[in-house]
Amino acid sequence: MENPLKRIWQGSGTAHGGWLSLRDDFAASVMGDVGFDYLVVDMQHGLADYTQATRLIQAVGHSDSVPLVRVPWNDPAIIGRVLDAGALGIIVPMVNSAEEAAAAVRACRYAPDGARSWGPLLAARLHGAYETAAANDSVLCIPMIETAAAVAAIDDILAVPGIDAIYVGPADLSLTYELPPAGDNDGPFVGALETIIDACISHGVVPGIHANPMLAAKRRDQGFRMVTVSSDDQALVQGAAAMLRAGTVGDL
Amino acid sequence: MENPLKRIWQGSGTAHGGWLSLRDDFAASVMGDVGFDYLVVDMQHGLADYTQATRLIQAVGHSDSVPLVRVPWNDPAIIGRVLDAGALGIIVPMVNSAEEAAAAVRACRYAPDGARSWGPLLAARLHGAYETAAANDSVLCIPMIETAAAVAAIDDILAVPGIDAIYVGPADLSLTYELPPAGDNDGPFVGALETIIDACISHGVVPGIHANPMLAAKRRDQGFRMVTVSSDDQALVQGAAAMLRAGTVGDL
Amino acid sequence: MENPLKRIWQGSGTAHGGWLSLRDDFAASVMGDVGFDYLVVDMQHGLADYTQATRLIQAVGHSDSVPLVRVPWNDPAIIGRVLDAGALGIIVPMVNSAEEAAAAVRACRYAPDGARSWGPLLAARLHGAYETAAANDSVLCIPMIETAAAVAAIDDILAVPGIDAIYVGPADLSLTYELPPAGDNDGPFVGALETIIDACISHGVVPGIHANPMLAAKRRDQGFRMVTVSSDDQALVQGAAAMLRAGTVGDL
Amino acid sequence: MENPLKRIWQGSGTAHGGWLSLRDDFAASVMGDVGFDYLVVDMQHGLADYTQATRLIQAVGHSDSVPLVRVPWNDPAIIGRVLDAGALGIIVPMVNSAEEAAAAVRACRYAPDGARSWGPLLAARLHGAYETAAANDSVLCIPMIETAAAVAAIDDILAVPGIDAIYVGPADLSLTYELPPAGDNDGPFVGALETIIDACISHGVVPGIHANPMLAAKRRDQGFRMVTVSSDDQALVQGAAAMLRAGTVGDL
Amino acid sequence: MENPLKRIWQGSGTAHGGWLSLRDDFAASVMGDVGFDYLVVDMQHGLADYTQATRLIQAVGHSDSVPLVRVPWNDPAIIGRVLDAGALGIIVPMVNSAEEAAAAVRACRYAPDGARSWGPLLAARLHGAYETAAANDSVLCIPMIETAAAVAAIDDILAVPGIDAIYVGPADLSLTYELPPAGDNDGPFVGALETIIDACISHGVVPGIHANPMLAAKRRDQGFRMVTVSSDDQALVQGAAAMLRAGTVGDL
Amino acid sequence: MENPLKRIWQGSGTAHGGWLSLRDDFAASVMGDVGFDYLVVDMQHGLADYTQATRLIQAVGHSDSVPLVRVPWNDPAIIGRVLDAGALGIIVPMVNSAEEAAAAVRACRYAPDGARSWGPLLAARLHGAYETAAANDSVLCIPMIETAAAVAAIDDILAVPGIDAIYVGPADLSLTYELPPAGDNDGPFVGALETIIDACISHGVVPGIHANPMLAAKRRDQGFRMVTVSSDDQALVQGAAAMLRAGTVGDL
Q1: Domain of residue A22, CATH code
Q2: What pLDDT is recorded for position C251?
Q3: Which of B117, B121, B122 sits opposite C94 (nearest CB)?
Q4: Residues D29, B62: C-beta atoms closer than 8 Å
Q5: Total structural domains within chain C
Q6: What is the pLDDT of residue F251?
Q7: If you measure CA to CA, which chain C residue comes closest to D34?
Q8: Which residues does chain A have within 8 Å of residue E29's beta carbon, measured at their own beta carbons?
Q9: Fewer Cβ within 10 Å of end Cβ, chain F: N or C?
Q10: Which backbone phi and psi does A112 adopt, to 5 degrees?
Q11: Contact present, B and F (at least 3 Cβ pairs less than 8 Å)
């Protein structure tokens, strides 16, 4: 049981990922064929509930992508349940303080590193032998930095032991600077990203961000090493539109 | 209650469609944004069961695409149930004779034109006032021509009153000529398409076919006027691969 | 294991029933509180699929109403499955000949009376000891008479051994006389009902019909002894409208 | 994107609503035909889980009633998820202090008014263009006042900016005065309602209450302007009982 | 893509199997750990519907047991759908004639050997490259012999090309000899098994039977080489009862 | 409405229970036949979500075993929902202080004993008349003692009014003493159990523990009076393995 994302990052590579908003495990399997380093089941703004999340995690777990879950909230109950289902990392929304970061870590790790409860029925089936030390080492705890308050507290947050990476939510981050909820923005948004990157470098934490194909190169240049470039609902609409266009050109 | 596909065909246009293999109604809504003339819920080789099909039909019914269903078999029970759910046309697999075509028509039409049973709970909600004559006029009955036997019987099949269009399944048709199950083939497959098109023209039936973006122009040139150019699972994989490629280029 | 409807009919009483179009087992439990002699899970025009039907049957089975199922079609597979789930009677759509009636009976009865296959997992749990002779005796086989063809063949149909009752579908029956699909009609519809009732009396079969509160007395006067007077979706809209009206009167 | 309830209340009208305890989206559509100003998906004591709630919200959203949700608890995760699904207002149980009220507001509003996270996939589909300012303006935040403690703190609670209305839960409120959990009571319950109404008037907050047809006029006289008069499970039982009675009268 | 059961039978071994009546894919995974040569998803008397069957097939497909499905009826629609989902064999109830056996074969094989329709979405994902010839070779067609009529027609049935094995349903077979629906019986039941075995040997078809641990040795001695010895619901009750007994002994 | 576990404990008997990790209500019914005093729906490490938990509770509620639920976390929302669904007791994970224990009690009891909210739709249907005092008396509040911190605070925890029993989670408890997550351990684990038992005796609280058949006698000797001896997934694998072994012996 090992987490391939850790190997990528140890080699100072960048992990590119996809996002799962649909609740269809066949769609998740299809996304698992594409070659993403990781795929994130989004239980906050995506459609999967717990049961469907377990199916999506299993579908990704049978592919070559690493199954991560964005939980709906910094809540040990759901973090534990999706880790039990086989997620190899948890993206936690709206972490604004060291206390909240520590709570996220605690929910991701078995004692003595945290307070995760034992009972990995599906995870043990997916990953083979499941042991507490190996699980603590393999499971990524990834708080989201998505408010001005979190940026202000970034050094405290990153000083919490057990944070593997952080994940910037650009839309929500923008809103707290009174900017529109977009994937990129000017103004204070730019400085916020710089602050985050600098802090990540100094604390040895991997900086991640929600992006898209057009923004990916810019984000890599800025120093992000976990870059989400696609989501299933957007891939579907773009793929279908491209196919329809290609199939009707000359006809319309 | 009117079927926009009829208008396209009366103006001798070509209808371009998409295929729904996933069982996620949000994915169906997304496909409904793309601009397909019709979207087909595939209950034969796709994943939707009856309950999920009702949701997909409703999702498409709230878009600008016409909701069709490919039923698992030429079976009046499931034809009736998906029409009750709001489908505006039925694609019926493996229709090989006039008798089988007549059975398909019978299942699609209320008396005196057929033997469909009354009870359109969801369809009435989706399409507003639902009356038997209007429904008989709006609902498309579309047998699949996908065996050598069906090609041999094509004139008998098309002579059955109430056939609006036919739909060629190239993979299955190929198999019956001992060719691989592909979207296109040489040899007897070519002549079979010609036979079908000629018969459709002489009987005033719209010829349709399962295709893809590369084959669409060829199919239109051959005379097909109902051409499926995309499916959700293929759109998803192509869209996601394109996004991943675009998002990583220069990095790998 | 006994069927209370048989007792009502042996005493020449009339059974009054309700119809379940929703797919919510809590709603079925609520309907089970009301006092209907029977409740029919409608798998033809209602929304329940097989899994949900098993839940609705169980919900009704725990009430004082007898659980019946209207299957989607005269198909031994689904008849067997819902009997296995605990239905105490099957209403079979579109039975137009003695052959079709015999097929329905065969699907409802274990050998030597028919060809039902053994395996009543849920039914045995619901009804206690489950034996083939008792089941053959308790399970009602109820073909629908809902076409002019069926009326013409009524004597042949009712002569088939094992028919306990018939059930008139007035909307479909009307359509075959080129009348609108309503619960009641004039013209040939009237004579058709008389023919059906007379044949039922002479063959000792209980005549049943789909009705509503306004039609119930008329139907009883005509001789029907199985009269459906409500459905869950209509009860819901009428109950809610009455409550809203009562709660706003004087205010609007 | 506008909330019709706001218009009713600006004109000093009273909004009358219905309650959804079932988990069937067809039932919700049926309730949407009846004419309620709002319909509340009850995720606390009703049966819908998150997935089914998304379906119920969509069903109501396609009707003329405003979709509200009573969440199971004052929890930003579920509040965000059902707003993302298209709810136009949130009823929050057991709000007993200004702090709790402020937390509810925060979960309902995007920054800078709160901390709701961006990602309205289904809501944007249902309501068209979805913008943060318009959403903050349209989404109603409605704490429940249902304990003696809440009544004692009513002025503090109503002073929290962003409270659009409050909703009295009479059963729970009664319990905290050691009265039975009924829709109406004497004793301290009467004074509590007066206190609540007076505070609502002085703070310009709409007072709402869970009621029934018999209590509605009394509640309006007391000053309540958001009055729930029906629930789907009660409507079902009353409607079915009325239909059965009407259909059997003279027979029993 | 190969079917391990064929290897067992080519080496004249006996395959021992389990039966899946529950609808829980985790339970199917657990059964897949036990070491059965095959596991049969029972869609006739078990609880799985189509969607759940696809999940059970996938769960078994990820284990070392071969996934088979007992379909509800000899129906090409459902046979095709569960083969598409990855089943490596189909057990078909109530096959009583050569015609019915030929229909079962036709539904299991692609042209030119049959009329199965192409579209193995999930099967191709589970089994890797999926080709028509290999699929025709790997998929087992297993009619049930479970009536006196089938025994009388056994030579005709087994002469149909493409029958890999037959499967005796002892309960239903017993009923047609007017014996109780048990796993074993005396009288004509004994001769029927002999007739079946003899015919299987002379036609080179593998004889299979539904059994239990107590009957297995007897069945092997009689010549059966496909012997089902357990089902999940019986295993559950026996395992739980044994654990409860072991955990309370000395205490009660 | 009475809780049979209370009677067992008043007579100083020991209650033996089973654990439900599967999400299949038929499996729960099967477990309900076995004779366990209680059956626990595990929503923390088992697979049931809320909807499925309601079905499992109902299935157990129709058996002779008492339905309990282990909730995912000490959260009043889910505690209220499963009590509304008919659970007669709640096992609450990771209760480490008197404050947390008091919160658990508060969620389980109606005012004035707590803050549970009124609305027992399914519970009232399952248990008949449902009144607040009787419910407060019947529903068991059972915190889990599964950390060294909880053992250190055991007297404070047990002094909280309304704690009926505690339940030791040996795996998690072991982890906090840096022992492997097993059902039994040496070292500080032994003393921890003694401390717990002693405190239970002195506070009149029933001590419970998660065990297995081999450990049960030892646990009873230690003084535990609520002993879980089986789970459905383990019963399934053990029962199936035993049946397979018995059915193949002599053959392999």
Answers
A1: 3.20.20.60
A2: 52
A3: B117
A4: no
A5: 1
A6: 53
A7: C241
A8: 125
A9: C
A10: -90, 0
A11: no
Question: Given D45, D176, D178, which is nearest F119 (Cβ)?
Answer: D45
Nearest CB neighbour to C172, from listed B75, B78, B117: B117
Residue A233 near residue B232, CB atoms below 8 Å: no
Q: Cis (ω within 30 of 0) for the bond into D112?
A: yes
Question: pLDDT-based confidence at B250, cuts 50/70/90?
Answer: low
Phi then psi for residue B216, to 5 deg, are -65, -45
pLDDT of residue A172 exceeding 70 = yes
pTM: 0.97
Q: Map tokens 């039978």 to a residue.
A: E9
Those residues of chain D that have pLDDT short of 70 are 250-252
Domain holding C206, by residue range, is: 4-248
Report the distance separating Cα C163 and Cα C89, nearest Å.
Answer: 11
E234 at C interface, C-beta within 8 A = no
Q: Are F14 and E244 in contact (CB under 8 A)?
A: no
* pLDDT for C238: 97
ipTM of the complex: 0.96
Tens digits of per-residue pLDDT, C73-111?
A: 999 999 999 999 999 999 999 999 999 999 999 999 999
| pLDDT reading at A73 higher than 70 | yes
Say how many C-beta atoms besides its own lie within 10 A of residue A187's C-beta: 11
D61, D114, D198, E27 from D105: Cα distances, Å: 22, 7, 22, 43
Instruction: Give domain status of residue B63, yes or no.
Output: yes
Given a cut of 70, the residues of chain F with pLDDT beneath it are 250-252
Q: How far is CA D223 from CA A210, D147, D216, in A?
A: 49, 19, 11
List B206's β-bridge partners, or say none.
B165
**What CA–CA distances, in Å, run from C111 to A99, C115, C136, C143, D64?**
71, 5, 9, 20, 55
Supply the pLDDT for residue F129: 84
Tell me, yes or no, if E45 is annotated catalytic.
yes
Q: What is the DSSP letter of F112?
A: T
User: What is residue D252's predicted lDDT score, i.e. its pLDDT?
Assistant: 47
Subunit contact C122:F26, Cβ cutoff 8 A: yes
Query: How near does any CA of chain E get to the CA of A86, in Å?
Result: 14
Q: What confidence category does residue E80 fall into, taking pLDDT thresholds of 50, 70 and 90?
A: very high
Residue pairs between chains C and F whose CB atoms are closer than 8 Å:
8
Neighbouring subunits of C (3+ Cβ pairs under 8 A): B, D, E, F
Active-site residue among F16, F45, F62, F210?
Answer: F45
Could you tell me if residue F252 is inside a domain? Answer: no
Interface of D with F in 70-129 (CB under 8 A): 72-73, 75, 78, 93-94
Instruction: Spell out which residues of chain E touch residue B47, defining contact as CB-CB under 8 Å.
Output: 51, 54, 121-122
B-to-D residue pairs, Cβ atoms closer than 8 angstroms: 8
Residue A250: pLDDT over 70: no
Pick from F50, F78, F132: which is nearest to D181 by CB? F132
Query: How far is residue D217's CA from residue C250's CA, in Å, rounded to a whole number?
Result: 8
**Average per-residue pLDDT for chain B:** 96
pLDDT tens digits, one per residue of F63-101: 999 999 999 999 999 999 999 999 999 999 999 999 999
Chain B residue numbers with beta carbons less than 8 Å from the beta carbon of A28 are: none
Chain C residues touching residue D243 (CB < 8 angstroms): 18, 212-213, 229-230, 234-235, 238
Q: What are the φ and ψ backbone dihedral angles of F11, each rounded to 5 degrees?
A: -85, 15
Residues of chain E with C-beta less than 8 angstroms from the C-beta of F21: 26
* CA gap B47, A55 in Å, rounded: 15
Q: CB of D46 within 8 A of CB of D52? A: no
List of chain F residues whose C-beta atoms are within 8 Å of the C-beta of residue E230 = 239-240, 243-244, 247
Question: Which two three-digit tokens encode residue A139?
Answer: 């499971």
E46/C51 Cβ within 8 A? no
Residue range B39-71, pLDDT digits in tens: 999 999 999 999 999 999 999 999 999 999 999
